[in-house]
């Protein structure tokens, strides 16, 4: 059994023993929270604005475990602020020092008070019940100390990522095209068809892998089955991506614009173009470089909106300039009509 699990079991035994003694030795805060400090270590107590890291076991008063951070090795980390409600424990933390452990009991009626909150009460926390916490303080830091430590951790992970990527490229003898953003891609099946542009919809088949070769997702059923990732009820088909909407990681947004319809490629996407410091799953940890084999199955052009032509404003009537008054023109005397020719006279010849 791992040491963290041993600690969790020991704390659970202690808490059960304490509960078996009823409220013996328990103290109470004005807000109704009950507590018992198992250890009282020397040293400064937690202060307002401190950043604390602690493991905890949360369970019902029937011993049903709800959360066990010891088991998953994921301690909680938060800043101590003025309390907003009894459940945030902010009134309790200042009673503890580094490495202190304690039992805390919170009556659920003080959490789910009022008609609105009562409607949110889960069935496993009925009226009159209580929530029980076993808490172990692992670290107390100022904000500056916590930020400096976090930056150191991030720098270390980034350095580790860079080393892992260099080794992956060298071991696999990869000759990829590298963009200004550090995206690397290899065209494995060229195509002469058109490339998409922002606003277009692309249908994409893909297989996603870690640098260690672990497949974590695929849109292709055969690949999902091969990797043991088949999800009952899932429809395996190319996914639809509208480019330019930020619906996929930046590495995809950039890379898909470089591919023609019908082409296939491998993308090697560093964490700054993927999920960065965010751990997405057991396979995709913080600062993980990801590898995707993709095929652009189809490009659907964005519909262009037809903008009606703007109507030209009706032209205003132009005022005609008044005609300049006509100069009087002297009329020429009308020509006399020529005299009509007299009909020719008929000569009469006398008969002798």
Automatic annotation (TrEMBL):
<feature type="region of interest" description="Disordered">
    <location>
        <begin position="306"/>
        <end position="352"/>
    </location>
</feature>
<keyword id="KW-0413">Isomerase</keyword>
<keyword id="KW-0697">Rotamase</keyword>
<protein>
    <recommendedName>
        <fullName>peptidylprolyl isomerase</fullName>
        <ecNumber>5.2.1.8</ecNumber>
    </recommendedName>
</protein>
<feature type="domain" description="PPIase FKBP-type">
    <location>
        <begin position="199"/>
        <end position="300"/>
    </location>
</feature>
<dbReference type="InterPro" id="IPR001179">
    <property type="entry name" value="PPIase_FKBP_dom"/>
</dbReference>
<dbReference type="InterPro" id="IPR046357">
    <property type="entry name" value="PPIase_dom_sf"/>
</dbReference>
<comment type="similarity">
    <text>Belongs to the FKBP-type PPIase family.</text>
</comment>
<dbReference type="GO" id="GO:0003755">
    <property type="term" value="F:peptidyl-prolyl cis-trans isomerase activity"/>
</dbReference>
<feature type="compositionally biased region" description="Low complexity">
    <location>
        <begin position="335"/>
        <end position="352"/>
    </location>
</feature>
<dbReference type="Pfam" id="PF00254">
    <property type="entry name" value="FKBP_C"/>
</dbReference>
<keyword id="KW-0732">Signal</keyword>
<feature type="compositionally biased region" description="Low complexity">
    <location>
        <begin position="306"/>
        <end position="328"/>
    </location>
</feature>
<feature type="signal peptide">
    <location>
        <begin position="1"/>
        <end position="20"/>
    </location>
</feature>
């Amino acid at each position: 059994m791992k040491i963290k699990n041993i600690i969790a079991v020991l704390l659970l035994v202690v808490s059960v023993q304490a509960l078996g003694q009823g409220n013996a030795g328990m103290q109470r805060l004005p807000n109704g929270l009950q507590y018992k400090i198992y250890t009282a270590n020397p040293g400064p107590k937690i202060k307002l604005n401190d950043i604390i890291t602690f493991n905890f076991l949360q369970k019902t008063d029937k011993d049903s475990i709800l959360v066990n951070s010891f088991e998953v090795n994921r301690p909680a980390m938060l800043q101590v602020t003025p309390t907003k409600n009894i459940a945030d424990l902010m009134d309790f933390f200042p009673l503890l020092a580094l490495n202190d452990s304690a039992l805390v009991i919170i009556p659920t009626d003080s959490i789910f008070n009022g008609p609105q909150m009562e409607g949110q009460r889960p069935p496993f926390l009925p009226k009159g019940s209580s929530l029980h916490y076993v808490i172990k303080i692992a670290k107390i830091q100022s904000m500056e100390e916590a930020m400096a430590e976090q930056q150191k951790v991030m720098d270390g992970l980034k350095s580790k990522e860079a080393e892992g990527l260099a080794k992956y490229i060298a071991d696999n003898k990869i000759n990829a095209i590298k963009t200004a953003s550090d995206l690397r891609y290899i065209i494995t099946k060229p195509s002469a068809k058109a490339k998409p542009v922002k606003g277009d919809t692309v249908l994409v088949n893909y297989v996603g892998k870690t640098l260690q070769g672990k497949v974590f997702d695929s849109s292709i059923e055969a690949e999902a089955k091969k990797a043991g990732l088949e999800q009952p009820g899932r429809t395996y088909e190319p996914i639809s991506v509208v480019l330019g909407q930020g619906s996929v990681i930046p590495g995809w947004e950039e890379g898909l614009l470089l591919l023609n319809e019908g082409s296939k490629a491998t993308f090697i996407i560093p964490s700054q173009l993927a999920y960065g410091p965010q751990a997405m799953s057991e396979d995709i940890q913080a600062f993980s470089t990801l590898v995707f084999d993709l095929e652009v199955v189809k490009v659907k052009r964005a519909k262009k909106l037809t903008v009606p032509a703007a109507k030209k404003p009706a032209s205003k009537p132009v005022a005609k300039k008044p005609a300049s008054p006509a100069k009087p023109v002297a009329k020429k005397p009308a020509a006399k009509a020529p005299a009509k020719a007299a009909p020719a006279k008929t000569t009469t010849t006398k008969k002798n």
